[in-house]
Amino acid sequence: MKLSIVGSGYVGLVTGTCFAEVGHEVICIDNNKEKVKQLQAGKIPIYEPGLEDLIKSNVAAGRLRFTDSIKEGVENSEVVFIAVPTPPQPDGSVDLTYIEQVAREIAAVLPAYRIIVDKSTVPVKTGEKVADTIARYSKSGAEFDVVSNPEFLREGCAVDDLMHPDRVVVGVASERPVATMKKIYEPFKAPIYITDINSAELIKHAANSFLALKISYINHVAAICEASGANVDEVADGMGADKRIGRAFLNAGLGYGGSCFPKDIKAFIHISQELGVPFTLLKEVEEINADQLDRFLKKIRSALWVLKDKTVGVLGLAFKGDTDDVRSSVAISLCQKLQAEGAKIRVYDPQGMEKAKGDLPGAIFCQSGEEVFEGAEAVVVATEWKQFRSLPWKELKSKMMTPFVFDGRNLLDSEAIRGFGYRYVGVGRPQKEIKQ
Ligand code: UGA
Fold it and tell me: Which end of the chain is less packed: N or C, by CB atoms within 10 Å?
């Protein structure tokens, strides 16, 4: 099928590429001319495992191309996806300026019947507004359908999530676009849920909020484990073995960050308030998340006492492993809070260094994980990059001033690390004396 996608950010670029990979003809559109030029030259603006190869092979096969012209995209495709940012406003509500702008631009060039699909995360009832806008600004008066098709991909495993989705949600206002939407998604062999538009929009906010709730739930259980001497890893395994609960998203740590959860939970709180049914449970989810970092910093303070002029090594800056995205990263907040107390920080991230530089003036950006240990009084694991596990921990201890390890993601084998003579502190894991 001939498809176009407006917005070549994480969602638009990965979705467009995966659509091309299963055989559709895709035009990815972005109003950032520089980005389009780079993409046309084979330069990929984000790090996402597997994406670069897929883009290159699909461009070479003639199924994927890039443009800055919405007109070109709309004229040459049956279905136009919208995947533009929906950033938060100071009061937690969602800024829908880009969605409105794109709806107006599509309306201005609509040549004949088209299906306009919203993929961006938007508040319930946005589809209705998009339909109104297109009808109002359409020059041709051509027929169209608006569809809601929320995206559930995770950064870091976006290609795999897209190629093998658990489900596809398609919200429609009439039968007309259903067959086309099914045809687009048929190659992905996933169950397709056809709903009304409002329900589809709600599914996205409700799903993300539930996942964040799971994280805050286990993080508070971790605090109870610390107070009682229990072990959160064992509690999570035991809880998660119940199929009704599931083990996924029960990893205790520094809390959730990124460009989705913090924004979407705030938005859902705002939406529920506007609708007169305030979702106060989600405020608690946010509070636990914020407390998680503060509780962790207390542990560092209580071990190192005065932080001023102490060198602290930080492993990880991205908001999670396998991505270069540092937006709303808890690792960055942790570094900033350490710096605010006068600590000197040495940082390293396998992919997120470039994007973090502006957020951390004064930090020493190291060339490797090993360098972070040089002269440090403590090393903090702030992001769950798997490769941090295989650093030569045994040898690295001798580079440190005092061998404290604060594992903010419960990434390391605590027994092994203690076995090398470190003082190890995790999240919700029992404290033990070092092995001599
Ligand atoms: C999240 C959702 O998982 C996706 O389904 C959704 O499509 C996406 O938001 C979106 O709305 O676009 P993402 O933010 O990319 O995806 O990453 P996650 O893997 O969900 O991680 C979010 C945060 O939670 C990270 O900071 C991660 O470190 C943290 N996390 C995750 C935990 O602290 N514990 C866990 O057990 C899992």
Answer: C
